[in-house]
Design goal:
By secondary structure, the protein is an alpha+beta fold. The protein contains 3 helices and 7 strands; from the N terminus they run βαβαβαββββ. 36% of the residues are buried.
């Protein structure tokens, strides 16, 4: 199997009310950091469609390879080990909730990214 990569939707990460509620965000928030995990960009488009984000193509200007301290923390915690979609709030610092999208677009809260120093994060699994 090819090495998995991360892709983000940039400013096109619009979320529905179910995802927003799972993240615990206020009702006026309509965007979040959407992270697709797949072997290729084309595969990431399909993963997004299968997990509730169907209106994207590889030509979207905001659809690009993902990087950042939040993604590094998710990878270190083993959350980027299989194809799928993760969503977190777009805030910086503090504590950022994380949901994993199930097939069909059902969000399941899996934990949070906790700010350490500056912009480094640690992923913590939430008790169910």
């Amino acid at each position: 199997m090819a090495k998995l990569k991360t892709y983000t939707l940039g400013n096109q990460g619009f979320i529905n009310n179910h995802v927003r509620d799972a993240l615990g965000l206020p009702s006026h928030i309509r965007q979040a950091r959407v992270i697709a995990v797949a072997a290729t960009k084309a595969a990431a488009v399909q993963v997004l469609a299968d997990h509730g984000f169907p209106n994207h193509s590889i030509r979207d200007s905001e659809f690009r390879q993902g990087m950042g301290n939040d993604i590094d923390a998710l990878e270190a915690a083993g959350q980027i080990a299989a194809p799928g979609v993760l969503v977190t709030s777009m805030s910086f610092g503090g504590s950022l909730p994380v949901v994993r999208m199930q097939s069909g677009g059902v969000p399941v809260r899996i934990g949070r990214l906790v700010a350490l120093d500056g912009f480094r994060y640690r992923f913590e699994v939430e008790a169910r």
